[in-house]
């Protein structure tokens, strides 16, 4: 394994500008050797990787040459130029691997073209996860798995570490869009600036505007007209002149759409309220509120106005706006369309809303559950009022019964405390004892049996106690229920067991994933895995035999499933081989 | 025994031998917590339940007295068919009278010991008779409803009964109604594969009996029945009735002594006068409490 080398054509340079000496670079895991093509040249290199401190290379895809700069411990550095960009990566990987595991044989990277990011990511993962590193060391350096095979099962891990994650989607601004009219101060003109971003926000927050836009544009009015109208309505709102707003609305029905309270919003609010757990006591919560002011202390000018009912629909409270804005921001960006086209934005929003609604319809049973819960809670409350069912407490008139019911507990405690001593020491004359026994028996004969035999509460308690007892003795072998078997084993054995467990898992994963064997490659892989497994097998047996007799049973219980799984694999391969042999023999026979 | 056609005997037909502790001194000591009237109520209901479970089920009750033991009920006899409880109670009363007449002591300290070894032997004898009745017989098991403390004097007899039950594959179930655990019954149930249970709430005795002990042997294979957390395997020495970890064992009868003896008090074997190291003397042997 140690003589596994990578040979690359490269140029050695003393500096970046230097034209360089062409030659051949040979690498194995311990060192790299540069032999110049010109045998007379003195620039021979023979450097151990462990001397290399770091490496830099030119970015892939740039127009520059593919350069690799290896920094030495003592401060010197080697600059190598390559023909292709894949080469320096392979070397860098070598260099890193040489540092991470300096005394191990080379990973067979020769037929792989790793991008630099990929390599770095893998190295980082190995450095962070010691368990993974141990596995990597065992299988990849041991030649059981190739680098690609090892990482193929860990795609997820690699993806997680991917620094180039898909760009995070931008949420809506957490800032309320308030129309800031820009007036030049001289004319009566007020200017509004609307960007696609703002339009998106308006659509998301105000479904009525969205609906109106889809209805009016472009049949009734142009886009510009629509937004002018909308801005006008907003302006009217901002002036807080409700009466004026109502008057304007009466004149222009399109404007009225913007000025009236949003019906769709109101519907949604009602729907949401229906889903609120009614056990949440709003009234009670109010007491905990930071300020006992209406609208949570927000300044509210229009509340003071005395208004006719006809103006009612034109009122809009700031808290309503705030809540709606908060809801939209929390919901996040629901649509994934370009913000340029206003119409598509509006339609996409409608679509998402519809999907939401249909979800809700399917969630009807949720409401039913809720109502169930309410009724249950109501029952419970009534139950609470009924008082405690404990007869001993509710009937203090019969203290004897209470004492009798407590006696077994006292006896139990006594029995548990001193198991060697006899707790009941009283001299009884035999006549008395026999007499009372006989009396009781004849009493029963005359009076009959007492009813009911068992109190139902007692029966339930007994049943629960038994079930609990059975489940606890079944699950916990030892005295301490929190103690696991592994913790009681010696530390070395425990670690060894865990390591074998992970490695066996890894082997099994690769083994079974290569079935059915369709290619030559898979066949060799399975053979390699099989050999590795047959090596693990005796090791497991060894562990079993090495532990103390106290733990042997438990260890063998732990090892057994591993052995079983391995045995299954080995058996499978032998069966396969036998079958293949048989087939081949039959074929040759047939041809002969 | 009632003749039954061969087909009717399925694997869930049981012969239940119930050993009832009728030690008057024990019952006198637990008068307040578990009067015998309550105990009998629960047990009679349980016996009826067993008989109802399968029409071929057979119940035999043996009273374990202070001085004697006797069969007080057999559901296969003609008297056992009707008015079971009345019949059983009548027989029990007769038994108590008989047991009293045999009593030679005027007064007894503490709850005293009941004759468990005797009733176990009687149960095993009955079972042997059933085994010999023909190829088809109900599956027998023994249930000890025991409250009296272990009588160390009966150790050998009880252990012999246990091994005999183990040999004939008869499980001994034990339900300890006394204040203390019974090491004898723990071992009996452990060795014979029965269930050992010490109910915590004696008010619900019937519940315990019907949930744990009513299941026939065939069904037990499918059930998870209570298992004791540990079994006290320590033996009591025969000389001072102390529970010991280490002691001297008679090489003839395996009696256990805490001190070196000249003569075995159980079988009368005379131990040689040779030094202790000699192999002819009883071996000093360590009894591992958890090794079985």
UniProtKB/TrEMBL annotation, chain A:
Pfam families: BSD. SUPFAM superfamilies: BSD domain-like (SSF140383), PH domain-like (SSF50729). The lineage of its organism: Eukaryota, Viridiplantae, Streptophyta, Embryophyta, Tracheophyta. Gene3D superfamilies: 6.10.140.1200, BSD domain (1.10.3970.10). Coiled coil: none annotated. Signal peptide: none annotated. This is General transcription and DNA repair factor IIH subunit TFB1-1. GO terms for biological process: DNA-templated transcription; nucleotide-excision repair. GO terms for cellular component: transcription factor TFIIH core complex. Residues 382-406 are annotated as: Disordered. It comes from Sesamum alatum. Residues 113-162, 186-238 form the BSD domain.
Automatic annotation (TrEMBL), chain B:
Keywords: DNA damage, DNA repair, Metal-binding, Nucleus, Transcription, Transcription regulation, Zinc, Zinc-finger. One of its GO terms (biological process) is regulation of DNA-templated transcription. Its main location: nucleus. Component of the 7-subunit TFIIH core complex composed of XPB, XPD, TFB1/GTF2H1, GTF2H2/P44, TFB4/GTF2H3, TFB2/GTF2H4 and TFB5/GTF2H5, which is active in NER. The core complex associates with the 3-subunit CDK-activating kinase (CAK) module composed of CYCH1/cyclin H1, CDKD and MAT1/At4g30820 to form the 10-subunit holoenzyme (holo-TFIIH) active in transcription. Component of the general transcription and DNA repair factor IIH (TFIIH) core complex, which is involved in general and transcription-coupled nucleotide excision repair (NER) of damaged DNA and, when complexed to CAK, in RNA transcription by RNA polymerase II. In NER, TFIIH acts by opening DNA around the lesion to allow the excision of the damaged oligonucleotide and its replacement by a new DNA fragment. In transcription, TFIIH has an essential role in transcription initiation. Signal peptide: none annotated. InterPro entries: TFIIH_Tfb4/GTF2H3, vWFA_dom_sf. One of its GO terms (molecular function) is zinc ion binding. The keyword Transcription applies. It is found in: Nucleus. PANTHER family: GENERAL TRANSCRIPTION FACTOR IIH SUBUNIT 3 (PTHR12831:SF0), TRANSCRIPTION INITIATION FACTOR IIH TFIIH , POLYPEPTIDE 3-RELATED (PTHR12831). This is General transcription and DNA repair factor IIH subunit TFB4. The keyword Isomerase does not apply. Belongs to the TFB4 family. It comes from the Eukaryota. GO terms for cellular component: transcription factor TFIIH core complex; transcription factor TFIIH holo complex.
